[in-house]
Amino acid sequence: MSNLVYMANQIARNLAPQGEATAVDQTAQHIRDFWDPRMKAAILANGEGLDPLAKAAVEQLRGG
Amino acid sequence: MGYVPQDDFGTPSVQSATTVTLTIDGRPVTVPEGTSVMRAAAECGGAIPKLCATDSLQSFGSCRLCLVEVEGMRGTPASCTTPVAPGMVVHTQTPRLEKLRRGVMELYISDHPLDCLTCSANNDCELQDAAAQVGLRDVRYGYAGENHLAAPTDVSNPYFDFDASKCIVCSRCVRACEEVQGTFALTIDGRGFGSKVSAGQATDDFLSSECVSCGACVAACPTATLNEKAVAEIGKPERAVVTTCAYCGVGCTFRAEMKGEQLVRMVPWKDGKANHGHSCVKGRFAWGYANHQDRILAPMIRESIEEPWREVSWGEALRYTADRLNAIKAQYGARALGGITSSRCTNEEAYLVQKLVRAGFGSNNVDTCARVCHSPTGYGLKTTFGTSAGTQDFDSVMDSDVILVIGANPTDAHPVFASQMKRRLRQGAKLIVIDPRRIDLVRSPHVQAEHHLALQPGTNVAVLTAMAHVIVTEGLADEAYIRERCDWDEYQDWARFVTDERHSPEVLQAVTRVPAADLRAAARLYATGGNAAIYYGLGVTEHSQGSSTVMAIANLAMVTGNVGRRGVGVNPLRGQNNVQGSCDMGSFPHELSGYRHISDGETRALFEADWGVALDPEPGLRIPNMLDAAVEGSFRALYVQGEDILQSDPNTHHVAAGLAAMDLVIVHDLFLNETANYAHVFLPGSTFLEKNGTFTNAERRIQLVRKVMEPANGYEDWEVTQELAKAMGLGWDYAHPAEIMAEIARLTPSFAGVSHERLDREGSLQWPVNEAHPDGSPIMHVDGFVRGKGKFVVTDYVPTDEKTGPRFPLLLTTGRILSQYNVGAQTRRTANTVWHEEDVLEIHPTDAENRGLVTGDIVRLASRVGDTTLRALVTDRVAPGVVYTTFHHPDTQANVVTTEYSDWATNCPEYKVTAVQVSPSNGPSDWQKDYTAQATHSRRIVAAEPAE
């Protein structure tokens, strides 16, 4: 698992108590707000190992 | 200004809404009720002779020199212990008083050396002044009687001497140790003529006693009995400049007392609003690093880290650096460059570095050492309250009834504030400590915590959620406050969450190791004990759930209605002198000054218009991301001002790999620090004594840093950054840091009313200072939260992925101690090493016995990422299964052992939880040997060839 995937999973895991939909939105927003473009590009390119919440958040990022 | 001692009104000021008018020597005087006659006289310009009185201490009434006559009152009362009364008529100078005072002085002087001309306090001695005041011309008793003139001098302390022969036993030192510092290390031993000041037990000297060398006794001493060695060596200062300390986040102000260009001593400034005339061993005495022989004063460059350093001119160094930066930018793009601002440098300097990165390098790859300390505070408090800062001023603690300290060790890391906190605790406030270690506050003279919750490291969120469970389920929530100030729906969601039985103390004690009954009692006390304030430090933030813990703290404060007035609040104890300020100045990669996100077009447009450049709207890299990107090859150049990431950041091997992968590392510092082993350019820095600017302390207090001597390296740090910007083609032209602050104020709403001129006039300002808060904001969120409604955030306990197991069965937690400061770059180069010359590993007796270890043994400390060796200290201060060390010494390098696990929201490293094993060792580890060799190799310097 890459470091970025670990980070995304960790963010999602900590936001999970907010409820699934909110956690996905907030995880995606967190990555938008705090990750450098190359980090965003990297996780969009390779999200292997992402947990379901983090994966949904990354997909949301992919959609813009 | 010339040398003028600080005013001394004899007794402390009194706060009272009621005033009293009396007559002193024929003059009407109006003062607050409760003021002493001595102070009333001093405030109207009179000077009643005194020896045992000083305005930092409660009146004592022992020296009998300050006697006065009061019409209608029998005898001659001591003016220090006599409060004013309406209509009182006081005479301070009468023949009767003159005779009495002269008689008292005769007794003092009959047992005092008559060596004034060679005394270190000559012309700066209250005994000398008092003798002159009373007109002493003769001592009728002679000098041949029994006396103390042969009493020995205790020279054990590295910074001050105790010359017992000059002691008049006024008890000011003893009282200062008690009242000001709260250590109670000094006492008066013996009785009558045999009375003498004693440090610790009879067999102790000052060094071996419990004295913490805060200097309060030295400041209080009216004679040369307790005097700085520097004064004895250099002589009396001839001028004084008020400036701000460059150590911790308390932000003490000092008078730098100078003789020519030489600093004689740092004396805490009585008018300092953060320290009120108190100090600690670091700020008071540990400034010798400023002139240490290790300091590098000439710029140096090298093509490769394998080469020795080559001294060059400033011009060559700046041209070389700018050319390399521009070349790397041209080849790899702007996002390949970045910088790190320093929490030890001024606001103006941090602002310029982030401006250089954003406007010059063209990226947002700027970060600061807050990344590894209080970045979760910024995230957590901004999310819940709406602003990234503590809610109170320090003085607020004097209105607290309950003080909850979690993950902080104020007596070691914030000692001057700890003294104030201990004063409040001695007055009766209740204390709750949540910490894996038995920190000094848990039990020290006249202070005893009601509850010490010695939790398992890494379980802060579980403990705080369990406290919330108790408060909500037992009906202790302040619903009226919540309905008025917080989002009610979010509160209800949160309350439902914490009410769940799985968050009860009984269920969670299996995880936290905190007995449920103790936790319930602590929660009840916090919720019902009156004004309750929370103080926290890096034991909260440096965890994988650091941000969650900050939000859990905010939840507790809101649910009990403890935000928005004096005596309450959420108070992060900031580590470094300007960590608050460096964060305020836009040092994070995602936000501009004033905590405004870089993606916000309106804010960005403001800066773009002012700076004349387009800004990258995307967030930049954090420090750990920079290192990752360097290893991957997309990050190539780093400008580091006043920060030693190789020693301070986790997993030293990875930091080294990241630095080694870069094409250009620029270190701008006082010393060839550990990071400089991987640098290609070294730009000499200036000390806080050599620059102008401002620091912002933990209570958001902005204070001036004033230059007291010229920079030994030739330039203040902001000038170096400016010259580098110019060399890169930027048209900067700041003539003084005041102009930089004017720009900050122009672009930062919370600093809108701040200027150097105003700070000079008013002493300090606490942000926000703007139209809504023209005089600043000692207390935040008074009329409501900055974000509107306070936000309750559900914080579930998520265990760290750093697990103990058979190979690594112990948990390591790291911290710092009183005498050393962070990576020790400053304090290791002072006499403070006498108290801590090496890092040691605290280990519980049971764990030590299981490994056959005794105190003093060299042990190997190993984790999954690395190992080092250090000496063991067997102590039950730590719980079984927990070990503790500091990270002050590079030859130990505790961060070889710490991992890269970090806070989920901010990447603040999880320094406080590392699974380790401890075993006997017979010498340095292979890493230590290799590192020493590499550092020695890297620090070779070839001197500049002399000009022809």
Structural features, described:
The complex is a heterodimer of chains A (64) and B (948). Chain A is an all-alpha fold and 64 residues long. Chain A is 75% helix and 0% strand. The longest helix of chain A has 15 residues, at 20-34. The radius of gyration of chain A is 10 Å and the shape is globular. In chain B, 29% of the residues lie in helices and 17% in strands. Chain B is an alpha/beta fold and 948 residues long. In chain B, helix 8 crosses helix 25 (717-727), helix 9 runs parallel beside helix 25 (717-727) and helix 16 (505-512) packs across helix 17. In chain B, strands 16-15-26-27-28-13-14-38 form an 8-stranded mixed beta sheet. In chain B, strands 32-36-33-35-34-37 form a 6-stranded mixed β-barrel. In chain B, strands 21-18-17-22-23 form a 5-stranded parallel beta sheet. The model of chain B has no long low-confidence stretch (mean pLDDT 96). Chain B starts with 18 loop residues before the first strand and ends in a 6-residue tail after the last strand. Chain B has 29 helices and 38 strands. Classes of the chains: A mainly alpha (64), B alpha/beta (948). The A-B interface holds A 3, 7, 10-11, 13-14, 16-18, 30, 32-39 and B 335, 364-365, 497, 544-545, 548, 589-590, 597, 599, 618-622, 625, 628-629, 634, 794-796, 798, 904-907.
Terminal residue distance of chain B:
43 Å
> Structural class per helix/strand content of chain B?
alpha/beta
Helix percentage of chain A: over 70%
Mean pLDDT across the residues of chain B is 96
Helix content of chain B: 25-40%
C-alpha Rg of chain B, in Å?
29 Å
- The DSSP helix count of chain B reads 29
Task: Provide the β-strand percentage band of chain A.
Answer: under 5%
Strand elements of chain A, count? 0
Mean pLDDT score of chain A, rounded?
95
Pairing-aware structural class of the strands and helices of chain A?
mainly alpha
Q: What quaternary form is this?
A: heterodimer
Please give the count of helices of chain A: 4
Strand content of chain B: 15-25%
Main sheet overview of chain B: 8 strands, mixed
Backbone shape of chain B: globular
List the chains of the largest interface with their residue counts: A-B, 18 and 28 residues
Strand order of the largest sheet of chain B: 16-15-26-27-28-13-14-38
Terminal CA distance of chain A reads 24 Å
Low-confidence stretches of chain A: none
Inertia-based shape of chain A:
globular
